[in-house]
Design brief:
heterodimer, A: 289 residues, alpha/beta, Rossmann fold, 14 strands, B: 380 residues, alpha+beta, Dna Ligase, domain 1, 3 domains, 26% strand
Chain lengths: 289, 380
C-alpha cells in the first residue's frame, strides 16, 4: 500500500484550464492518475485534455458528478486560499496546493477551518505526492523514481527530486514520496506523514528531507524517539546558508534556540536517525552502510 | 517588508495608538527646528533598518535645539552597522516610569497569531525571555475571532499593569491587533511601550513587518521599500524574480529551487570550499533569468568559479543548456564554470554544453570538487 493516495484516488484539478494546470493535468493523466474532473469557474461544460476530462464551475459540482475525493490546486496565490476552502467545503479528503505564496493571514483562517474537518492539506508550495508506478498528485517528474519500499517526506521541491533520483540510481524505489510544502504556514507537518509511513505495510525505511527554519524537524525527532519502529534517514539543507533574518524580538522569543541546521541534525541524531552530509550519501545510509 | 520606526508610528497614529510628538529630519537644521517646536529635551533616533540601533549609538538624548543640531550633524551621514543614516526621527523626551514589551507575530507551528507581553520591556527583552520565561505572557489568537477583550484584560493582569491603565491597555492592544490585521503584517511590536511619569501609555518605539505575499493588497507600500539595508545585487535579483543572498566565499552558485540551492552550498562547504552566495532561480530557468543571474554572480569580484546545478523536473535540461549558452554568449567572463544537469533530457543538455566546450559534471559531489579545484587554480 501507499499513503494518502492510491489507484482508487479520483482527482479534481482546480485551475485546469490555466497554463500550469493544463500541463500538469496531462502529465498526471499520462502517469496513470485518475484525473476525474477539472474546475474553472465560468468554463463549466467544456471538456479538456483531448476530450477526456470534464470541466465544472465549482468543486461541489465536480465532486457530485464524478465522485472526486482529492483535489490539486494550480490557481494563482491571491485566489488559492479560497480554492482550498472550496475544496474542503466540497468534502474531498486530500487537498494538494501547488501554489506558493498565499498570504499568511489567509492561511491562518484556512488552517482554523480545516482543523474542524476530516481533510489533509499538503502545501502550499509543495511539489505534491507520488506513489509509483501509477499515481501522482502533483508535479514530481514520474521518471525519476519507481515503486519500492522507501517512504520519502520533504519540505523542498527540486531537492526532493535530487534525493529520489539518487535513490533510483542506487536501485532503490519509493512507496510514496510526499512534499509537505515550503510556505511558512502549511497544512501537514513531518509528524503526521511519519505516522502514516509507520503504519504503511509497503514502507520499510523513511527518508526525511528538512531544511533550516521552524521547528518541524525537532518535532519529527521527538516523534521518532517516542516510538517509531522503522529506520529513518535524514538530510537537513542549509548548514552553509546565511542565518535566517529574524522576525524582531517576537520571532526570537517564539523560536528560542531552535531552527539552525546544526540543532536539527543534533536532535535527529539523538533520536537515532542517520543524518547524511550530502544528498548523495542518502542511498548508502538507506542500505545501512 | 520591514517598515521604519517612523512608518510604523504613522500606522500607530492612524489606529489611535499614542506616540511621542515629533517629526522626521533630514538635516541638522531641520532637527533644530523640530526641537524648537517641541520645547525641552528631545530624542534623536536614526532611521535605519538594523537591530541594536540604540546600543550602536543611533539614539541620542539632547537638552536644547542647539544641541539637537550639533548631535544631528554627528549622526546624519554616518553609518550604523554599515547602513547610512539619512533621516532622524526627532521626538519629545518622555519621562519613563516603566517599560513594557507588547508584540504579535505568526506562530508557524501552531498556525495562529501569538501575542506576547512582558512587564520587563526594553532592549533586553530577549534576555528576559531566556532567563525568566515566566515573565513573558503569551496568548494565541483565533484568526476568526481576533484578539478578544477578555484576552487583553488577562494579559494586562498577568504582566501586572496598574489597574487604572487596564482600559487604556485594552484599547491599545486591540488597536495594534487591528493594524496588524489590516496591513497583513507578520510582526507588529511596541518595545518599549512605556508608562509615563504622568501615568499614560505611550508607544516609544515600533516595528512592523508586512507579509511580502500580501503586498498586492497594499499598493501604498509597494514603492516604499527601503533597500539601503540590502546589497544592491539583492535588489537587482528581486527585479528578475531571483532569490539572491551574498556570502563571503569564492564559489558562485546558481541553482533551481531553494532547498537544492542550500544543499549545493552545503556540499561545497562539506568538500572544503566556501559558497559566494545563495541563488535560487526558481522554476523555468529561461535564458533571460539565467543571464540576469549570471550577471549578478559575476559582478561579485570574489567569485573565482561558478557552479550551476539544475535538476530538470518539468524544466527540461536541454532548454536550460540553451539558456546557459545564450547567457554566456551575452555575459563576457574569464571565470571558469562547471555545470551539472540532471533529470529530464539530461544527456541532450550535456551534449549541448559540451558542444560549447563547457565543463559538465555527472554528480553534485563531482561538480563541487571541480568548482573548488578551479577556484583554487585561479588563486595561485
Amino acid at each position: 500500500m501507499s499513503i494518502l493516495v492510491n489507484g482508487g484516488t479520483r482527482l479534481v484539478v482546480q485551475g485546469i484550464t490555466g497554463h500550469e494546470g493544463a500541463f500538469h493535468a496531462q502529465a498526471m493523466l499520462d502517469y496513470g492518475t485518475n484525473v476525474a474532473a477539472g474546475v474553472t469557474p465560468g468554463k463549466g461544460g467544456e471538456w479538456v485534455l483531448n476530450g477526456k476530462v470534464p470541466v465544472f464551475d465549482s468543486v461541489h459540482a465536480a465532486v457530485e458528478m464524478t465522485g472526486a475525493d482529492a483535489s490539486i490546486i494550480f490557481v494563482p496565490a491571491r485566489f488559492a486560499g479560497d480554492a482550498i476552502l472550496e475544496a474542503a467545503d466540497a468534502g474531498v479528503r486530500l487537498i494538494v496546493c501547488i501554489t506558493e505564496g498565499i498570504p499568511v493571514k489567509e492561511m491562518l483562517v484556512v488552517r482554523d477551518v480545516l482543523a474542524r474537518r476530516n481533510v489533509c492539506l499538503l502545501g502550499p508550495n509543495t511539489p505534491g505526492i507520488i506513489s509509483p508506478p501509477h499515481t501522482k498528485v502533483g508535479i514530481i517528474p514520474g521518471e525519476i523514481t519507481f515503486a519500492g519500499n522507501v517512504g520519502v517526506v520533504s519540505r523542498s521541491g527540486t531537492l526532493t527530486y535530487e534525493v529520489v533520483h539518487a535513490l533510483k540510481l542506487a536501485g532503490i524505489g519509493t512507496s510514496t514520496c510526499v512534499g509537505i510544502g515550503g510556505d511558512p504556514i502549511i497544512g501537514t507537518h513531518f509528524v503526521e506523514i511519519l505516522s502514516h509511513f509507520e503504519g504503511d505495510s509497503q514502507t520499510d525505511t523513511v527518508v526525511l528531507i528538512g531544511e533550516i527554519g521552524g521547528r518541524d524537524e525537532e518535532r519529527a525527532a521527538e516523534f521518532i524517539a517516542g516510538g517509531m519502529t522503522k529506520p529513518v534517514v535524514a538530510f537537513i539543507a542549509g548548514q552553509a546558508a546565511p542565518q535566517n533574518t529574524r522576525m524582531g524580538h517576537a520571532g526570537a522569543i517564539i523560536e528560542g534556540g531552535v531552527g539552525t541546521a546544526a540543532e536539527k541534525v543534533a536532535a535527529l541524531r539523538a533520536a537515532g536517525v542517520r543524518v547524511a552530509h550530502t544528498p548523495e550519501e542518502i542511498p548508502g545510509l538507506v542500505r545501512g552502510r | 517588508m520591514r517598515l521604519h520606526e517612523y512608518q510604523s508610528k504613522e500606522i500607530f497614529t492612524e489606529h489611535n495608538i499614542p506616540i511621542p510628538q515629533g517629526r522626521l529630519a533630514a538635516t541638522p537644521e531641520e532637527a533644530k527646528l523640530i526641537a524648537e517646536e517641541l520645547h525641552g529635551a528631545v530624542v534623536l533616533k536614526a532611521q535605519v533598518l538594523v537591530g541594536g540601533r540604540g546600543k550602536a549609538g543611533g539614539i541620542r538624548l539632547v537638552r536644547s535645539p542647539d544641541e539637537a543640531e550639533e548631535e544631528a550633524a554627528k549622526i546624519l551621514g554616518t553609518r550604523i552597522k554599515g547602513i547610512p543614516v539619512r533621516r532622524l526621527l526627532v521626538e519629545e523626551a518622555i519621562n519613563i516610569q516603566q517599560e513594557i514589551y507588547f508584540g504579535m507575530t505568526v506562530d508557524r507551528e501552531r498556525a495562529e497569531t501569538l501575542v506576547i507581553a512582558s512587564g520587563e520591556g526594553g532592549v533586553n527583552i530577549e534576555e528576559v525571555a531566556q532567563a525568566s520565561p515566566e515573565r513573558i505572557a503569551r496568548l494565541g489568537v483565533n484568526p476568526l475571532l481576533g484578539l478578544c477583550d477578555f484576552q487583553a484584560r488577562n494579559l494586562a493582569a498577568e504582566i501586572e499593569i496598574p489597574r487604572q491603565l487596564w482600559r487604556a491597555f485594552n484599547v491599545l492592544a486591540l488597536s495594534l491587533y487591528r493594524a496588524y490585521q489590516n496591513l497583513d503584517a507578520t510582526l507588529a511590536e511596541i518595545n518599549p511601550l512605556v508608562i509615563t511619569a504622568e501615568g499614560r501609555l505611550v508607544a516609544l518605539d515600533g516595528k512592523i513587518i508586512l507579509d511580502d505575499n500580501a503586498l498586492f493588497r497594499h499598493p501604498a507600500f509597494y514603492d516604499k521599500r527601503d533597500i539601503s539595508a540590502e546589497a544592491p545585487e539583492e535588489t537587482e535579483a528581486r527585479k528578475f524574480g531571483l532569490a539572491y543572498i551574498k556570502m563571503d566565499g569564492d564559489i558562485g552558485c546558481l541553482v533551481n529551487g531553494a532547498g537544492l540551492a542550500m544543499a549545493t552550498m552545503d556540499i561545497i562547504q562539506h568538500k572544503g570550499g566556501q559558497p559566494a552566495n545563495f541563488l535560487d532561480i526558481g522554476g523555468g530557468a529561461s535564458a533571460e533569468k539565467v543571464t540576469a543571474a549570471l550577471r549578478i554572480l559575476l559582478a561579485d569580484p570574489q567569485v573565482k568559479s561558478v557552479l550551476i546545478n539544475i535538476f530538470g523536473g518539468i524544466t527540461r535540461c536541454d532548454q536550460v543548456a540553451h539558456g546557459i549558452r545564450a547567457a554566456l554568449a551575452e555575459v563576457e567572463t574569464q571565470v571558469p564554470f562547471v555545470i551539472r544537469l540532471a533529470g529530464t533530457n539530461e544527456a541532450e543538455g550535456r551534449r549541448i554544453l559540451a558542444d560549447a566546450s563547457l565543463e559538465t559534471a555527472a554528480t553534485l559531489t563531482e561538480a563541487a570538487q571541480i568548482a573548488i579545484a578551479r577556484a583554487q587554480a585561479v588563486m595561485v
